[in-house]
Amino acid sequence: MSQTSRQNTIERVDFSHKSHYLTKAFKSPFYSRQEPLNHLKEWGRWADYLSPAAYTCSAMEYFACRNTCTVFDLTPMTKYHISGTDALPYLNRLVTRDVSKIKPGRVGYSVWCADDGQVVDDGTIFHISEGVYRLCSQERHLDWLMTNTIGFDVSLHEETHDVAALALQGPTSCATLKRMGLEDIENMKMFDIRHFPFEGTQLMVSRTGFTGDLGYELWIDPNHAEALWDRLFEAGQLHGIKPMGDEALQMLRVEAGFIQAGHDFMPAHATVRSGYTRSPFELGLGWLVDFKKPVFNGRKALLSEKENGHRYNLVKLDIDGNKPGCDSYVFTKNKKQIGTVTSAAWSPSAKASIALASVEAPHGEPGEELLVEIYYQKELKWSRVMAKARVVKDVFWNPPRKRMTPPDDY
């Protein structure tokens, strides 16, 4: 076939039924409410959706979450609906924890691995009702999840575009939902799920979040997204409610010690070079590996790793000075390179430069003193500092209100 013939053939292909291939980025169901509030007029991208890095000032949005409450658009997060006779056996084969312990009306955090015991991703499993689950993660995994359905009587489909979601986080979040009329919301425990009637549909609320603070996540049909946003902001007007973008969320999640794919680990099935992946033990998630289950992806490899030791430890660092150690190398006091910083931030609450770092085992015991090589620019001049750092045991933000039931009524 000639070059001209090939070009003509391509031109004749009808892509009209494949409109999603032509969509550069989706607008969230909340976009009409977000756009007027986005004073910076800058939009980032989370997967297939436009997502604001900040609406006004990331620092002010951070403080709003720690002192009042903020709303973050969760709609772009990947969501999978899983049901059927073998929904539970399927999930128990897929993930490392015992899913049977996640009862209906509860949420559980988990990770899933490849056969070599390396983490594909982490996420939350919502047991919505008997035999009906929702799996949420940052990355897209439909092909991986579908491959693992072989041999199971299970129905699985992606419902990312079918469910709109907001994260309401901060000390006044419960008071806002009470004012919105969600009856008995204050008695929800951490990781509980409840359903409420809303504008002729059903609003699902979970006491979950990614900020390490008191907070809730709200899940609803996209056709009712704008109504939910309006009701939420009307109810939160006297409680300091503000919209929040991704920059503030990154500061909050590092304070809480939460990991994120693409930052603190690479998904195992997406990594090109060997040795760049991490196991649950190397991410500090060994507590999520249940060897009492007979079979699950990566069990044999993880059992061997538990017996023989692992390569890395994910640690929390308290770094001297006020310069964040983003993408920095980590050294021993003798200047031997042993790892890298995976996530870093200046913590306004801890008044410290904090970080998550992956270091070679056996390094990483709490109290160990290390060095972090930080480069920073000031008025076009680059400076380098070898900042002292200490491995700490606890996360940097873990307030009692996070777990209180009922929470204080601010």
Can you walk through the features of this model?
The chain is an alpha+beta fold and 410 residues long. Among the domains are: 20-75 and 163-244, 2-Layer Sandwich (Gyrase A, domain 2); 311-394, Aminomethyltransferase beta-barrel domains (Elongation Factor Tu (Ef-tu), domain 3, Beta Barrel). Helices cover 20% and strands 31% of the residues. The chain is built from ten helices and 19 strands. The chain has helices at residues 3-12, 19-22, 31-37, 58-67, 87-94, 142-147, 173-179, 225-235, 246-256, 299-308, and strands spanning 44-46, 49-51, 69-73, 78-83, 106-113, 119-129, 132-137, 155-158, 164-169, 193-198, 201-206, 215-220, 241-243, 312-319, 329-331, 337-347, 352-360, 369-378, 381-392. A hairpin with a 2-residue loop joins strand 6 and strand 7 (132-137). Helix 4 (58-67) crosses helix 9. The chain is globular and about 65 Å long. 42% of the residues are buried.
Shape: globular
Total of DSSP H or I helical runs spanning 4+ residues: 10
CATH architectural group of the domain at 20-75 and 163-244: 2-Layer Sandwich
What is the CATH fold-level name of the domain at 20-75 and 163-244? Gyrase A, domain 2
Helix content: 10-25%
* Structural class determined from secondary elements: alpha+beta
Going across the major beta sheet, what is the strand order? 10-11-12-9-3-13
Radius of gyration: 23 Å
Q: What is the distance, rounded to the nearest whole angstrom, between the alpha carbons of the first and last residues? A: 73 Å
Going by CATH, what is the homologous superfamily of the domain at 20-75 and 163-244?
A: Probable tRNA modification gtpase trme, domain 1
SS elements, strand count: 19
Q: Give the low-confidence spans.
A: 1-15
CATH class of the domain at 20-75 and 163-244: Alpha Beta
H/E topology pattern: HHHEEHEEHEEEHEEHEEEHEHHEEEEEE
Q: Give the amount of beta strand, in percent.
A: 25-35%
User: What's the average pLDDT?
Assistant: 94
Largest sheet: 6 strands, mixed
